[in-house]
């Protein structure tokens, strides 16, 4: 069972491993949208957006519901919103750590050299 869970997690994170897919999920976190709306908001070709939505659908991360001649996409699980927020916080933590390290290097460079006797 543990191995199956690890495989699920690996496949799940592989499905998220594309900047456009993450952007699509961020947009869907704001509310349901059709392909044209997503395409306009991301400024990408419809075929690229459709391709990424197909991957997200195949992994049951988003679902599509046909309304007239449009397909409306929605997040399958609202916990995706929390996952994206946690990922952003982890990024911010890494950024803070990097800034702290850079500040330490900067302080070291600014210290005057000790005169030799």
UniProtKB/TrEMBL annotation:
Residues 1-95 form the HTH arsR-type domain. InterPro entries: ArsR-like_HTH, HTH_ArsR_DNA-bd_dom, Metal_resp_trans_reg, WH-like_DNA-bd_sf, WH_DNA-bd_sf. Keywords: DNA-binding, Transcription, Transcription regulation. This is HTH-type transcriptional regulator. It comes from Neobacillus rhizosphaerae.
